[in-house]
Amino acid sequence: MRPSPMASMLAGLVLLFALPSGQAAESTELLELKNTILNLVDELVAQGVISADKAADMKQQAALKAREQAAQAAMAQGQVADAAPQAAGTEVVRVPYVPEFVKEEIRAEVRKELSEEVTENVVAVGRAEKWGSRLEFSGDLRLRANGIFQENSNNPTIPDFQAINEAGGAAAAGEDVFLDTNEDTLKGQVRLRLGLEAAVNDTVSVVTRLATGNDTDPTTRNQRLGTYNRQFDIFVDLAYGEWRPDDPWSTQAFTFRGGRLPNPFYASSLLFDDDLTFDGITAAYRGELVDGVDLIANLGGFTLLAEEPNLIDGGTNDKHWWGGQLGLDFDITENLTLAFLGAYYDFLDVVGERNDFNSTSRDWTAPEFIAKGNTVFDIRNDNDPDTQLFALASEFELLNAMIEVDYAGFAPVHVILRGDYVQNIGFDRGDVAERVGVDVSERNTGWFTQLEVGYPKVRSAGQWQVFGGYRYLQRDAVLDSFTDSDFHTGGTDAEGWLIGAYYGIATDLWLRARWLAADEIDGAPAGFASPFVPYAVDVLQIDLNAQF
């Protein structure tokens, strides 16, 4: 068995304490070795690896053993200690010869331990503290072939509420007043993201990221290829400060962030699209609760809309949301982990308010982006039949539960099963009916399950993963502007299958292919689209991903 670093240092100290002062002075190499070992002990004390008392005890033990070994060596060779008088309370032990193979063995052992133990720690600290550079660049590029296949029997008169709101009314929207529900399309897309992390000091950093995308749809960063060579739009996707107050050696991890942030919650695309970023502040914690059990906690407050005070109503035209999440991650066995997560999300002032007659003072209550699926109503109140502005009819107060089981008994292949459930407890049938003008059934739950087999992360050549799942999301279970933008081409009120696979081509270069087959569940409430014909759409995506 390999000796421990402490044993190696103790052996080195024994030899060094055994050396006579004159002999050590004649050997520069041994002096360097002695200083290295003593400095290493002092550094371990400074880093908190060993205590000062432990270091002093090590040196004292080494000195005692050195004297014993020197005395034994002298007796074996028929020699005695120098008879010269010594000062009171002092003792000098002289060893006439230290075999070269002993010195070389200790040199090699110390170098080995320094290389394997201390160097690793120094490198880790250097990375954490960003020695030599305070800037770290990163990025990724995704090239996508995206095919959308729609049934000819689909209802052609499903309103496009986003187009109507942007145009100022159904008449102004013209040909865009209805969604395209019958035509197949095949298009190329690109997503580019470039990030920079700058260390302010040991615990504070600033993160920024630029990305392709658009200023209308917050759920995607895709840029369509084939725009007659027009330049891509580039936006600030992330811009936040981060504070990690913990010692990098600590098992307790706190993180605080503020600005334009990545999603801080563990969640599937049932609730939040992968490309969504948020404006606000977050606090996160992960640490060992007991042996084999980690506690996960996330808390965040976010702003959807912040405008000037409303002089008419005397209030502010602001929309906010916040969320809290708690979870436990269990190491059941060496090859089996189990995680439970529960979350609560509350969206404030997102429901629409009908305007007073011939007024537009409450237009701000309409969302700036609507996908499709949520129950909406017209908040305009005038005599013009061609002006409409649609807003959400329901409150959104979400309860979310997730579970993940990870079996690694076939390592490096993992078998992972995920489940996700959400319910909008903010839906009130009476309030919604009063706003809409007709009775609207309570369709406010959703769930998603997925099985993955393969490498947990595909990032190297030859690695692979296959997956399949089922998704069911009712009309008012979540905000349709937050959920996955690919399944059923975005929005809620859809159910269906998804299957796919990853394959690693080279380091940080991989392929992903997905087939998403979805059907509408209920359709819009009576009065919006009649008669109901399920809107069926299949999506094929083939992605080439590069990360740097």
**What level of helicity do the residues show?**
10-25%
* Number of strand segments: 21
Average pLDDT over all residues:
84
Any idea of the CATH class of the largest domain? Mainly Beta
Q: How is this fold's topology laid out?
A:
Blueprint: H1 5-18, H2 21-26, H3 28-46, H4 52-76, H5 100-129, E1 135-150, H6 161-167, H7 170-173, E2 185-199, E3 204-212, E4 223-224, E5 234-243, E6 253-262, E7 277-290, E8 293-305, E9 309-310, E10 315-316, E11 319-333, E12 336-348, E13 376-378, E14 390-392, E15 396-410, E16 413-424, H8 429-436, E17 445-454, E18 464-473, E19 494-506, E20 509-520, E21 536-547
Antiparallel strand pairs: 1-2, 1-21, 2-3, 2-4, 3-5, 5-6, 6-7, 7-8, 8-11, 9-10, 11-12, 12-15, 13-14, 15-16, 16-17, 17-18, 18-19, 19-20, 20-21
